[in-house]
Amino acid sequence: MPLDHPALSAADPELAALVGAEEQLQADTLRMIASENYVSSAVLEATGTVLTNKYSEGYPGRRYYEGQQNVDPIEALAAGRAAALFGADHANVQPYSGSPANLAVYLAFAEPGDTVMGMSLPMGGHLTHGWGVSATGKWFNGVQYGVRADTGLIDFDQVRDLAREHRPKLIFCGGTAIPRTIDFAAFAEIAREIDAVLVADIAHIAGLVAGGAHPSPFPHADVVSTTTHKTLRGPRGAMLLTKEAYAKPVDKAVFPGLQGGPHNHTTAAIAVALHEAAQPSFRDYAHAVVANAQALAAALAERGFDLVSGGTDNHLILMDLTPKDVPGKIAAKALDRAGIVTNYNTVPYDPRKPFDPSGLRIGTPSLTSRGLTTEHMEQVAVWIDRGVAAAKAEDEVALKVIRGEVAELMAAYPAPGLPVG
Ligand SMILES: *Cc1c(COP(=O)(O)O)cnc(C)c1O
């Protein structure tokens, strides 16, 4: 259901039409990209405020610009809410997004050329955890761990061995395609042994942590990095949460180390999202996201889908489509035409190339925000199964039929600009 944008429509009809089309697309489709969500109307409004007009380099009470009467309390509110929600001593809410937040952590605790350790990208890690094509892999010596081929689970023997051998300054845990609970305590034990800073990158699972559906990285991690726009259901942005001893270097790294003025409209929207995430209804949401993912995983497994690690503990499912005899990219593109939006993804030990891998990654944060429940997951699995079969058969008519059925269901669960109950 498209929103009203009278000023935008009058000033720039071409752009307004594209925004309207995107609103329609987000309303009509089953959005299953694991890192995406729908923000509330309140969060959407906060991002569209006059706070976008304001410069405020520095931190509350220590700014390089005047006129901070309202911006200071807004940032203090966001930071205070973040620290309280995640049990951190300190929160920095200024990072522009997850990647710059992680770069700030390198700047705070390492020198170029130092060794750092993270999960390798094809095993489920993030580019910014020291992968070669990323600045973090070019400027630092990235040592990478993975998952076991037989279980699909993180290989802690390998993590410990690599840590002892290479003695990284930083250890990153967390990633973008990890369907299982992250054992922060196990990482902390290894980090302590070699005196490394443990960074938990909870970008994907922050909302689950906030809602009590995934264990907290504190007190195990020294620094917690997170985006605000994935399961946490806030605007596009990021935060760095720390124990007290790590607060100062992190703040200095974000500003003046890496960034200029913070995006105050985003900070305001983060504050709103954190307020929403502190409500009892958000706990229900977080648990519903996991329940939906588990119901969907079971329904997919029943239909012969090969799930990495055999299932999920969180919001995401990673499938190896090799048994279905359809490459991930072909499947993702066909499902998109069927109104099911996903992304192709490498799977651990993937014999295919990263730009044309074997896997498909899906998640339940968005459709849970729309109000879909475990009752709907059988139907979603049926659509995915039919869509993948149609991809293989190159049956465009079948994809069109699915698209109509998806739109019909989603019409009963309005978006975007979701009301939050
Ligand atoms: C999404 C993500 C990031 C990067 O966030 P951007 O906002 O896209 O820069 C970093 N780390 C992890 C684990 C992520 O999932």
Automatic annotation (TrEMBL):
Would you say which domain of life the source belongs to?
A: Bacteria
Q: Which cofactor does it need?
A: pyridoxal 5'-phosphate
Instruction: For this UniProt record, give its keywords in alphabetical order, as a comma-separated list.
Output: Amino-acid biosynthesis, Cytoplasm, Methyltransferase, One-carbon metabolism, Pyridoxal phosphate, Transferase
Q: Which Gene3D superfamilies does the annotation name?
A: Aspartate Aminotransferase, domain 1, Type I PLP-dependent aspartate aminotransferase-like (Major domain)
Question: Is Cytoplasm found in the keyword set?
Answer: yes
Residue positions binding (6S)-5,6,7,8-tetrahydrofolate: 121, 125-127, 244
**EC class (word):** transferase
Give the UniProt subcellular location, in the record's own words. Answer: Cytoplasm
Q: GO annotations under biological process?
A: glycine biosynthetic process from serine; methylation; tetrahydrofolate interconversion
Per the record, GO CC terms? cytosol
Where is the Serine hydroxymethyltransferase-like domain positioned along the sequence?
A: 8-384
The record ties this protein, via NCBIfam families, to:
PRK00011.1
Q: How does it assemble?
A: Homodimer.
Q: Function of this protein?
A: Catalyzes the reversible interconversion of serine and glycine with tetrahydrofolate (THF) serving as the one-carbon carrier. This reaction serves as the major source of one-carbon groups required for the biosynthesis of purines, thymidylate, methionine, and other important biomolecules. Also exhibits THF-independent aldolase activity toward beta-hydroxyamino acids, producing glycine and aldehydes, via a retro-aldol mechanism. Thus, is able to catalyze the cleavage of L-allo-threonine.
Q: Member of which family?
A: Belongs to the SHMT family.
| PANTHER family hit by this protein | SERINE HYDROXYMETHYLTRANSFERASE
* Protein name in UniProt: Serine hydroxymethyltransferase
Upper lineage is: Bacteria, Bacillati, Actinomycetota, Actinomycetes, Kitasatosporales
Q: Which gene is the coding source of this polypeptide chain?
A: glyA
